[in-house]
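Reopening: structure tokens for the nicotinamide-adenine-dinucleotide complex, inputs below.
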Amino acid sequence: MNIGFIGLGTMGEPMATRLVQAGFALTVFDLNSDAVDRLSALGAHRATSAEDVASKTEIVFVSLPTPDVVQVVALGANGVVHGSKVRVYIDLSTTGPQIAKRVSSKLAEHRILALDCPVSGGAAGAAKGTLALMVSGPTTAFDEVAPTLSMLGKAIYCGEGAGLGQTMKLVNNLVSVTTLAVSCEALVMGVKAGLDPKVMLNVFNAGSGRNSATVDKLPRAVLPRTFDFGFSTALSLKDTRLCLDEAEAMGIPMPVGSAVRQMLNMTRAAYGDSADFTRMICVLEQWAGIEVPLVSEV
Ligand code: NAD
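Re-run output (same inputs, fresh job):
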């Protein structure tokens, strides 16, 4: 099957690589020619624009950084909407439900079915094909692409409504970053009180404090002080902002999420957009006047 793939970044490149290595005929486009060169070396065909991809392939995946970019790539002057061949458009990016609804309704006018399909699992999950994919949109389109999605990970169908997959992704990421923030707070307080960080993690993971930060993010990227979990502060802030904006539009206060958003803002102010979001513990350490000691093996 001919497949198009637009956006070969941290997530898109390993996903596109898996598809080409699985034997799909892939046509790719990215503004970054180095990424295109790497896919081309594996056997993918190059396209000159998003429209070109959508004129050469029936199924088009996009994995792009922000809602604005998705809108331009999907609906802009040289966008997917103008492609002559595309039938199904699948957005793997995290862009929020509003953009998914707008893009889906515009594409429907051109008889293109849209699935929103944000992913969770990071670059490592993208490379291994173990992502969680939160899919929403027409069931006919989902049934058709389900075997392809299975190359990328586990696809969980969230409903027919455009944007439901995006909403699921936003709340999932809010839970993930919130558990990171509170686990970092707890670790800093415990260490200042005299607890050993390794002992603290053992207790959390044997007890009711267990969560995705204590099981994965802290042992992998915080205690070894590598701060390289693979998710930037800017992207985490974008996801949190999208979630809170959506909740506000629905009239739902989210005070805990708002506090976490400020933690991310402070981390970004101190360490920059590209700093890993696990860096947030360094902000807390400064307030506490201590540093959690390095633990290389947890
Ligand atoms: P990234 O910035 O690494 O990659 C985005 C790619 O899009 C880049 O290669 C860039 O050159 C390309 N691009 C930008 N504008 C373009 C355009 N107009 N036309 C064609 N290509 C264009 O981002 P990423 O980390 O791969 O994330 C992609 C999406 O997946 C984001 O929405 C992000 O929130 C989401 N996501 C990321 C992670 C993660 O761990 N990085 C995890 C889950 C979901």
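The chain has 13 helices and nine strands. The two ends are 45 Å apart (CA to CA). Marking as resolved unless the reporter disagrees.
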